[in-house]
Amino acid sequence: MKLRPLGDKLVVKVKEEEAKTSSGIVLPDSAQEKPQQGEVIAVGSGEVIDGKKVPLDVRVGDQVIYSKYSGNEVKVEGEQFLIIKQSDVLAIVE
């Protein structure tokens, strides 16, 4: 199955966070901070501004940092993804 986002949406594969502290203590899921970085795996066709379609600045393969509580989580074939708007992207990691 393949996800194809619409408009100004992006599909991001969330970067896995370390489940242990530096001292070796294993953290339960409820104690872990929500990750804010991931890899863009699909982009929509663009945003409509003043009746014209404007292409997105973010490309497939970009590593991005996004707003902490943005988007919708989806699970496809056992993998976790996040669908967010381009406006939720704070930066592209280069």
From TrEMBL:
Subcellular location(s) of the protein: Cytoplasm
Signal peptide residue numbers: none
Database matches in InterPro entries: Chaperonin_GroES (IPR020818), Chaperonin_GroES_sf (IPR037124), Chaprnonin_Cpn10_CS (IPR018369), GroES-like_sf (IPR011032)
Gene3D superfamilies named among the record's database cross-references: GroES chaperonin
Gene Ontology terms: cellular component: cytoplasm
SUPFAM superfamilies, A to Z: GroES-like
Pfam hit, one: Cpn10
GO molecular function term, any single one: protein folding chaperone
Keywords: Chaperone, Cytoplasm
Family annotation (SMART domains): Cpn10
Keyword Chaperone: yes
CDD domains the record matches: cpn10
UniProt entry tagged with the keyword 4Fe-4S: no
Family: Belongs to the GroES chaperonin family.
NCBIfam families the UniProt entry points to: PRK00364.1-2 (NF001527), PRK00364.2-2 (NF001531), PRK00364.2-4 (NF001533), PRK00364.2-5 (NF001534)
Protein task: Together with the chaperonin GroEL, plays an essential role in assisting protein folding. The GroEL-GroES system forms a nano-cage that allows encapsulation of the non-native substrate proteins and provides a physical environment optimized to promote and accelerate protein folding. GroES binds to the apical surface of the GroEL ring, thereby capping the opening of the GroEL channel.
Protein's recorded name: Co-chaperonin GroES
Gene: groS
